[in-house]
Amino acid sequence: MAAYGLYTHIQSNRRRSIALLIGLFVLVYVMVFAGALLAEALSTYYSYNAPPLEYLIRAAEFDFIKALPFATIGTVVWIAIAYKFHQSMIDAVTGARPVTRQEEPRLYNLLENLCISRGITMPTLRVADDDALNAFATGLNEKQYSITVTRGLMNALNDQEMEAVLGHELTHIRNGDVRMLVIAVVIAGVISFFGELVFRIFFQNVMWGGGRRSSDDRKGGAGLAIIIAIAIIAVVWILSIVIRFALSRQREFLADAGSVELTKNPDAMISELRKIEGRGEIPGANSAVMEMCLDNPRVGFSNIFDTHPPVDARVEALVKFAGGHDPGPLAIAGPKQNEDVINEPPQGGPWGESDQGQDREKPFRPDQPPVEGPWGPEPGAPPGPWGPKRN
Length: 391
Description:
391 residues; mainly alpha; Zincin-like; 2 domains; 11 helices; 56% helix; elongated
């Protein structure tokens, strides 16, 4: 099967996915060691014979070895839960549901035609009943891949633009971006959980043990060990965030290019980007879900932590390399007013109402037909309105 997008990017994403999984275990183990060091330091911090730093490090290493199997099992269980139920959790956040051809024939046929044209296994199609203009792909393998489109996006885009959106998400699936993003979210979740757990333990010990001794008596390496442990935890937590944002924003440019390659319509891709610009916020969706979306309107500090390149930059690339035309920012027309009201015909027929209104006279109609039958007048019949018949 011929790959679309950049084949080297696909291979790179596969290597990154493996590296991220290995990095997940490494970061968890570092976090566990920092937690063990912090626990040893806190246990001796208020004693009068505080041990030196070297002793605390050796004790933390011993605790780390004992906790290593539990940390490994916990991480594996976390990954297994994410592997099995990540789609259900995303659906719960966004309100998305799977749809069939009978329910959404337009959307289903567009996606099916794209998949057939390139020999791609069709992912599950989902619709989120939300007015936001956005779409995203999820899944870790071919059986789990899914594309979710919001109701607002379906109502705002025409068939060509919607086809460009579906092509964009299909490219993310094919390039391995979706799998890598899900793994990165799992890493951030594990590290955040362990980091919060360690900090809770630390602050509880400080609150319950505070005031037992003056700072003059705090000798030994306990204080320094606490500083080192907190620094390690902070660095690991920052690394987990950096991993998420270090997933190159080039993936969006490549997905845009892959969509154009599928649809052969750069103008449709540009116009749909202009329509969704600033209108993609999904209420209730956390940052992990928004990172998977077609566009993420949430911006970070001075755009440093943005997960998506600006729409202007994406449009500029499509104009430069795909020969598209930029119409500029587009306004989306609101719903038509009174579109369901049926106009009743005017009173008095299609030519309007008579000036006489209800008092107009009825047209003249004789009681008897003025024309006699072919055999003459009937005997005893009264004369017509023009008098008796003359012979």
